[in-house]
Amino acid sequence: MDLSELERDNTGRCRLNSPVPAVCLKEPCVLGVDEAGRGPVLGPMVYAICYCPLSRLADLEALKVADSKTLSESERDRLFAKMEEDGDFVGWALDVLSPNLISTSMLGRVKYNLNSLSHDTATGLVQYALDQGVKVAQVFVDTVGLPETYQERLQQRFPDIEVTVKAKADALYPVVSAASICAKVARDQAVRNWQFVEKLQDLDTDYGSGYPNDPKTKAWLRKHVDPVFGFPQFVRFSWRTAQSILEKEAEDVTWEFLDQGSDPSHSCNLCRNCSNARSFNPLCQLGIKPVPWSCRDTTNPLVPQQELPDKLFYFTVLEVGSPRPGY
Amino acid sequence: MESSDEESVHRRRVHLRPFTLRSPAPVTLHLLPCEVPVSRPAPVGRFFTPAIRQGPYGLEASFRGRSLRGEEVAVPPGLVGYVMTEEQGEVSVGKQDFSEGSEEDHEVMESPETLERDFDRFIGATASFSSFTLWGLETIPGPDSKVRGALTWPSLAAAIHAQVPED
Questions:
Q1: Cβ neighbours around B2 below 10 Å, total
Q2: For A178-229, what is each residue's pLDDT tens digit?
Q3: Which residues of B touch A308 (CB under 8 A)?
Q4: A241, A42 in Cβ contact below 8 A?
Q5: Pick among B79, B146, B160 to test the A interface (most A CBs inside 10 A)
Q6: Contacts with B14 from chain A: Cβ below 8 Å
């Protein structure tokens, strides 16, 4: 599978697809949706659709596709190669969601949980097939969350398509099995050839299965913690396993989630005469670190009368040519 | 000024090393919308910089799994940015750091009312900058951001303190 587009940039999402078989533009098609890599704390989650004309479903079944989890890696690779050979009637498309995209979605100010992300990605892929001109008549989906509500959502979105959402659909419907194979092959290859965006030293690529309960994966996580940046983007920061390692082995980070304008503890400590300037001085609204030689103001209780911390990097702006020698 | 405050000022002064301002090397700086309440080196060049992308609405990056959007902010004309660090360890007046000081400085030191005492603290510029990357959580900080507002302050201050010619 050619994942070079993903390897060029794996910080966001990446859509890949086979050519659309000509017959799928004319005949009513059946389309399966499945995903791979939902649980792991490492690497991307891959969504896949696979489709073929209803009239050729028996030919797809004849390939003996099965739930990707019941197949070995070599069997999956072999079956995917066969589907490629049958490109005259089988088509597929993928959406690779990078771990960075998963982290930033789930940790967003407005939380975007994995179920919603999954539903929207699946919906997007079905729409993508329609946009490419595939005559989708039936859709089978392996469920994420409650199948009833998921089916209702999809059915509403695609009223002209017969939608079936079921648990274990990847074992029940060959077209979903085929999608699960596409997804799994892509996920395995993406993880195996992951191009780390970071310039890491002593990178160990033996990360185990990527599942949080795998001791190898846990050891890999612990080995690759950076006290400031946490993990490489290959890791899903939103996973509890990742977060609990960070809590123990990395520095705390506090975010400016709220507007600090009304919080006196963040009042000005940089300007010379804050006492009556607070109402309009924009510096007052900044959480700039104290620079005590210029902001002692005992008349204003809002100005912290802080001692200079022992270690501190000052980040300041001075006027050119007037550094007041000797202070 | 209250006497107690005056006392504490006299106890400890912070001095700026003027010679450090002459030619500090330029650096690349990122101002993040979060605080890491420690001061330590961080592998910015290995973890952060290589992951910056130019997106349709500005620079894109992430930190600790959170999405950042950034933009370049220039230091206003007539000003220069310095990265200031405090001298560490036992700094005694008149030693290495003062070797680059001017003759005048030595004279000041030798007077009984010396400005710099050996228990004072000293800061100096280790780098300079004429612009930096300002990052916002999920959105570009934009013209209304606090930092941009702060940077308009010097010119505003100059304007409001300028002599108004009498008519």
A1: 9
A2: 999 999 999 999 999 999 999 988 888 888 889 999 999 999 999 999 999 9
A3: 12, 14, 86, 121
A4: no
A5: B146
A6: 292-293, 308, 327
